[in-house]
Write a structure and sequence with these properties.
By secondary structure, the chain is an all-beta fold. The protein is built from no helices and 11 strands. The termini are far apart.
Length: 126
């Protein structure tokens, strides 16, 4: 089993920044993708940013390109999401996710994630 614990959410004014962290513990697997997803009230969950095992490849939703940066520290089993120039429409619960085994799926594919964190609320006020 893998446990994912997110932190770093909160309330911020539009234009501000937040950094989310997701620490993985338990049995982790090499070559697996990790990603950040979000779900706003009344909306479907969407992928925000994903990253390869090595960190060399990333994927971003169009809505966050140029504002968000995903990174990971393999030694610490931690993935980060730096969010800058936040907008009210970024308000959502943000979830961290990873695969239970190497699937070889594209970073742009939302399927294949087996483990999810409990989520952290991000609220951006206008």
């Amino acid at each position: 089993q893998v446990q994912l614990v997110e932190s770093g959410g909160g309330l911020v004014q539009a234009g501000g920044s937040l950094r989310l962290s997701c620490a993985a513990s338990g049995r982790t697997f090499s070559r697996t993708r990790m990603g950040w997803f979000r779900q706003a009230p009344g909306k479907e969950r969407e992928a925000v940013a994903t990253i390869s095992w090595s960190g060399d490849s990333t994927y971003y939703a169009d809505s966050v390109k140029g504002r968000f940066t995903i990174s990971r520290d393999i030694a610490k089993n931690t993935v980060y999401l730096q969010m800058n120039s936040l907008k009210p429409e970024d308000t959502a619960v943000y979830y961290c996710a990873t695969e239970s085994y190497y699937t070889g799926l594209s970073l742009a594919t939302e399927s294949g994630y087996n483990y999810w964190g409990q989520g952290t609320q991000v609220t951006v006020s206008s």
